[in-house]
Amino acid sequence: MGRAVVIGGGLAGMLAAAALAPFADDVTIVEQRDVPATHPTPGENLPQDRHVHVLMSGGAKAIEALLPGALEHWAEAGAAKIPLPSGVVSYTPGGWHRQWPAAHYLIACSRDLLDQHVRDIVLADPRIRLLDKTGVRALTGSAQRVTGVRVASREGLEWCIDADLVIDASGRDSNTVNWLAALGITGIRERHIASTLVYASRTYQAPARNNGAPLVQIATAPHTPGPRQTGTLIPIERGRWQVSLAGTGSGAPSEAKDAFVPFALQLPHPMIGQLIARAAPLTDVQVSDATGSSRRYFEDARHWPEGLVVLGDATATYNPLYGQGMSVAALHARALFHTLARMQLHAPGTARTAQKAIARLTEAAWSLSTSQDALYPHAANAAPSLADRAKGRYLNRLSQAAATSAQAAATLTQVTALEASPARLLKPSMLLAAGLGRWRRPLAYPPLTDAQRAVVNFADHPEP
Ligand SMILES: Cc1cc2nc3c(=O)[nH]c(=O)nc-3n(C[C@H](O)[C@H](O)[C@H](O)COP(=O)(O)OP(=O)(O)OC[C@H]3O[C@@H](n4cnc5c(N)ncnc54)[C@H](O)[C@@H]3O)c2cc1C
Fold first, then answer.
1. pLDDT of 134-156, one tens digit each?
2. Domain boundaries, the chain
3. Does ligand 1 lie within 6 Å of residue 3's CB atom?
4. What burial letters (b/e) apply to 96-118, b meaning 16+ CB within 10 Å?
5. Which residue's CA is the closest to the ligand 1 atom numbered 3?
6. Taking the domain 3-53+110-192+293-369, which CATH number applies?
7. Closest among 289, 287, 227 to 257, alpha carbons compared
8. Any idea which architecture 197-290 has in CATH?
9. 383-400: pLDDT as tens digits
10. Tens of pLDDT along 171-204?
């Protein structure tokens, strides 16, 4: 059937290998890191693994379709399936969101748990081989057909691996644009939108009586004067809370441990600060500014070689506040599977067809996450278009409407959970909701159930 090579053994790479396996004689994943064999210790997995990562139901379903049993594995290991929007206590510029009945969900757990179970299932497949501590240095072949990769070991040994199909899943620092240029393919259009957000994250052991805290999200209004700030607390396995605080410019959080709780307390509502003030920190504060959105429009290249597909963060990254990257990577891998179910691995046009399918999924997530960010002064390397401005303002209105309208919340959640196309946001009922949303009164207090209120325990901290 042919041979496939996957560059990168992150989530996108593992899922791409699972998608390829039924259609290839063998699949080699080349990964430059030393991939932890069993349960990774902090910092062993990925640079971003200490920050809050939620997996939207659209992504979770795509992973389950590729790796049946993944959801059950995660649940057994302590991952929480949190209903959306009812399981999230969310304060946005529209006020506190009512806890509307759930139609979708997200998976909340550490990145380590999520990745480990995916690795365990994927690498148990005898058709898939992991070559770690080995970096890809170049693509081999020509502008007409990529025929493999040139790799180097840590000891400096270099060799080539031939393949009928090469998948680039090497993440946000992918070198494919340069590697293609070396084969004579240039002019790949790129767009960068800097969120300028700095993330600071820390993991806590929840006090025993406080186990069962809801997922809490607090955000300032976009496009108001002053820095943007947000906080997110998610319950993760083994009774822990993972907390990510984020801010721009002078409102950015720092790595100082004693500044973490005060930052959380001064968000538009102090709930996260109140919770963690009474919890035991288990880690230092980890800071990251790799939060920009970048997109490489491979699908628009005038000439595309046979034998190469780019997916996951290597094709686009998104502001992490929208929680999309892993889910989009999963949807990309599923699109690869569907292409290969129709076209042979090495058939003419397979790579281009897959790349176009991947681009359609990227576009949906990209338009959601960048429409607000593109409007910040100097955020983008190209000025926002009229369409960007209209989309940004409309989504802002919809977010306000979702705080007070069950229908607006349901549709917006369906789209942000990557279970439906953003075109659904243009239904007449959504246009109406966006028009009326601002005039309805949001909730003044967080809509906690009795059980959640007991956890949050406002007794010592009366409502502001
Ligand atoms: C702060 C932060 C918070 C985030 N929060 C969320 C969230 O809540 N929800 C969500 O869905 N997403 C979130 N994301 C995005 C998510 O982390 C990524 O989208 C996801 O991990 C994409 O995976 P990937 O496999 O494409 O890339 P990566 O995870 O970067 O993996 C790429 C792999 O390729 C390897 N590699 C690179 N170059 C080479 C080479 N030349 N040769 C061999 N191997 C190579 C790397 O070592 C790495 O292992 C967040 C990101 C950040 C930064």
1. 999 999 999 999 999 999 999 99
2. 3-53+110-192+293-369, 197-290, 371-437
3. no
4. bbbbbebbbbbbbbbbbbbbbbb
5. 320
6. 3.50.50.60
7. 287
8. 2-Layer Sandwich (3.30)
9. 677 777 788 888 888 887
10. 999 999 999 999 999 999 998 888 788 999 999 9
